[in-house]
Amino acid sequence: MRAAPGRGAGLLAPLPAGTRVLLLAGGRERTALSMKRWAAQRPPAERWALVRAGGDALVEPMPPELDVVDFSGGCACCVAASAFSLTIARLLRRGTVDRLFILLAESADPGAVADALWSGPLAGGLAGVEIVGVMASDTPQRLLAATRRAGLGAADVLLLDSLSDPQAVPTLQASLSLADTGADPDIVIPPPAGLDWVDLRSRLDAVRDPARWRWLSGAPGRGGDGSPTPAAGDDRCHRWVWPAAASFDRRQAEAALRALAGHPALTELRAVIRTRREWYGWGGGAPATSWAPTVSRRESRIECRIRSDVPIDLAAVASAWEAALAP
């Protein structure tokens, strides 16, 4: 059923909670074909809705069970962000939406759109914001350039064309990791018929599982080789994770990271931290590191290796991070 944005109470009235948002980036023609396939596989008990941002003249017809709204008021990640949020708010107030898909224009930055959703009045009604990028086949070098140019390093799952060279996956993964501390999408070459919704959903759940290790190997609280009782001098792995809705004071966060990196017990430290205005990545060992803006938008996360033979007060470290959380 095609629906037009209705009139309502605007952004001020409370929104229904629990909607999961999936941003589809990389070009409307490619993402629309994937969306049509997934909509046909929608679980009967879920209500799905689609916002097509960008106002392209040519659009792929969607199944009638999918609520569709077209937004053509401008760029959803900058000048028209407020109008875009209002369009979504009106859609959500028409009834509970389990999954809201947003097809972005090719020029839109998915990371900036995710920031606008988490920072604005819609945040209270969202259970999560996920990013899926869809790309045409190309050489690994050109894929890397296109991925960075389109902001697709922020993607949770990056779908390459089914004709892509399989070698493009590890090459692109390694290049993105080197180029940006927080970029680690699950890069997939789907079968010729396309990736099924169940497979995409399981991949999104896997990369967004807060219990997973993004950068460090080794079992939680154990040695780097996974041994249950590390010997003296062995490294232990430790992590802290906060949801994307949480933000930190930038100066306090940077000071806390530098203090942690300078501790004699630390041998390695990686982090992505969301501040009020930007996301920052921290890479390298201790104490030499880099602290710079990152494309990652998944969560705030710190992972480190700690020597078992050097004492460190992890409770005090956790308290410092709680104090750095922005009000």
How is this structure best described in words?
- With 327 residues, the chain is of the alpha/beta class.
- 28% of the residues lie in helices and 23% in strands.
- The protein has helices spanning 28-39, 81-92, 110-119, 140-149, 168-179, 197-207, 250-261, 314-324, and strands at residues 19-25, 48-53, 67-71, 99-103, 126-134, 157-159, 186-188, 235-243, 266-274, 279-283, 290-293, 299-307.
- It has a 7-stranded parallel sheet, sandwiched between helices. It has a 5-stranded antiparallel sheet with strand order 8-12-9-10-11, covered by helices on one side.
- It is globular.
- Residues 1-11 and 219-232 have low confidence and may be disordered.
Give the topology.
Layout: E1 19-25, H1 28-39, E2 48-53, E3 67-71, H2 81-92, E4 99-103, H3 110-119, E5 126-134, H4 140-149, E6 157-159, H5 168-179, E7 186-188, H6 197-207, E8 235-243, H7 250-261, E9 266-274, E10 279-283, E11 290-293, E12 299-307, H8 314-324
Parallel strand pairs: 1-4, 1-5, 2-3, 2-4, 5-6, 6-7
Antiparallel strand pairs: 8-12, 9-10, 9-12, 10-11
Helix pairs in contact: 4-5, 7-8
Number of strands: 12
Shape: globular
What radius of gyration results from the CA coordinates? 21 Å
Average of pLDDT: 79
- Return the string of H and E elements: EHEEHEHEHEHEHEHEEEEH
Strand-pairing-aware structural class: alpha/beta
Provide the β-strand percentage band.
15-25%
* Low-pLDDT residue intervals, each spanning 5 or more residues: 1-11, 219-232
Largest sheet: 7 strands, parallel
Percent of residues in helices comes to: 25-40%
